[in-house]
# Entry
Amino acid sequence: MRTQLLFLFIFFNSFLSYNQINLNKIDYVKLDNQFKLASIDNLGKLYFLEGNKLIKVNTFSNFSSNPFSKENYFFSDLSIGNISKVDCYNTYKLKLWYSDYSILVILDNYLNEIKRINFNLISSGFNISEISSANENNVWVFDESLMRLKKFNFFKKIYIDNIETKIDGKLIDMKSNYNYLWVLTEKYFYKINYNGLIIYKSKNKHKFSRLGFYKNDILLSNNSELFQFKNNEELFVKINLEKLFIKDFFVINETLYIYDEDYLNKYLILTY
# Structure
């Protein structure tokens, strides 16, 4: 009996430690305070903001030596203020959100404008404060006045009628990988399917402020800690990390970038 219990204990602990993330720091670079890192796409291209100007950079070395090189791409529109969010999950339909004017701009991979939606002209009685990519030609939008999520087709300029999801607490972050929308509020952490159904909900007890995707799992951070949410096990596991202020982070394949306002820190993700 003791032997069986010991075997089960060892097996259970081995199971929990499987796919545990470890980080190996491989590089870091100083960022110019003139530019704010907004995002990194799945091809490793970097997106910087300078005021209301978006700059797409093929390699960081090109940017650091000459930010306004002809090898980089640019987009700017002075008439609608500063960019609040850069969503580059689909690099061929890049989404810029201008929260001050409730305007969504869709760009191609060369930062040419494809489409523009002014939600003030569409959403009578709605207060759209945040967006995220969704499947096909849709985006998730958050109506702050009613604390609900809706799905919007940006080519047809219509809401998907049967999709509406109520959430609780002030919205902090939301990101979609098309299959699921992951939402962080001050109170809760949500997993929502493409039909708007909540299929997982837990308290935001670690005060997470950012989330990102790593394979089938989710990474979440507060200002100083990083966690792995093991999707299949519905388990939060803290990742060992040097003492660091985490303003934002990005995961590209097996590489983790942590932005601390002054430096972009680059780590190799190792799993055991």
User: Anything to note?
Assistant: Residues 150 and 164 are 5 Å apart (CA to CA).
